[in-house]
Amino acid sequence: MRNQLIKLFNDNRQSSAAGSGYRVANSAGEEATVYLYDAIGGWWGITAADFVKDLAAITAPTIRLHINSPGGDVFDARAMATAIRNHPSKVVAQIDGLAASAATYVALSADEVEIADGGFFMIHRAWTLAMGNAGELRDTANLLDKIDASISADYQRKTGESAEQIDAWMGAETWFTAQEALDHGFVDRIGASANVENHWNLSAYAKAPKALTERQPVSESVFDHAAMERRLGMLERC
């Protein structure tokens, strides 16, 4: 079976390349703003290395982390989540549209989690990319089992739900509306509806709701072109 994480990255190359899905603003002010509007990890998403470096440079007492992400690589996301937990500032995660897969544990690592009215929150088993021989791939699979257990524990702490319930939701690829995410304790409150277009291709997922599979055209005006410039700069250094 084709690796679904590769499919997620490949299907969303246009969305990631159309403009910057990641930027940091006002890092030394009273409230810094971080936009995570991209896939996580891989060739076309925001990497943990960039995120952790930029987060460490923020001195503002409060960080507002805006999220609209289809998910991505579990290891990049876990590294990002650890950096958020260890940061001395108060971090408020604001899900403006979608927090799916790996993006959910980035969100839940914040001190407070808010989701926009009309937003979605999806949990499932962890994904990653792996190469190697049979033994190395078995080691990766075993590591993913441990990651799933760790993620499940995080969800349990946040929601108060049982391990059995969380594991059932993860195994079923469960999509929560904003109200359902609040009712089950994944988020702390529902905010105003955000003016965020759905330009993600979610065909890598088996159960994406119809409201999210009817994509809007990618707008090049959503952000500046910093992300593409960053990627081009990386290629020029190679």
Molecular structure report:
This protein is of the alpha/beta class. It has a single domain, classed as 2-enoyl-CoA Hydratase, Chain A, domain 1, CATH 3.90.226. It is built from 10 helices and 8 strands. It has helices at 4-11, 13-17, 48-56, 74-86, 102-108, 134-159, 163-171, 178-183, 210-213, 226-237; strands at 22-25, 31-36, 62-69, 90-100, 112-116, 120-123, 174-177, 189-191. Strands 1, 2, 3, 4, 5, 6, 7 and 8 form an 8-stranded mixed sheet that branches. Strand 4 (90-100), helix 5 and strand 5 (112-116) form a beta-alpha-beta unit. It is globular, with a radius of gyration of 17 Å. Residues 217-238 have low confidence and may be disordered.
In short:
This is ATP-dependent Clp protease proteolytic subunit. This protein has 238 residues and is of the alpha/beta class.
Task: Please tell me what the overall shape is.
Answer: globular
| Strand element count | 8
Task: Estimate percent helicity.
Answer: 40-55%
Percent of sequence in beta strands = 15-25%
* CATH architecture level-2 label: Alpha-Beta Complex
Family: Belongs to the peptidase S14 family.
Protein name: ATP-dependent Clp protease proteolytic subunit
GO biological process, one term: protein quality control for misfolded or incompletely synthesized proteins
Pfam families: CLP_protease (PF00574)
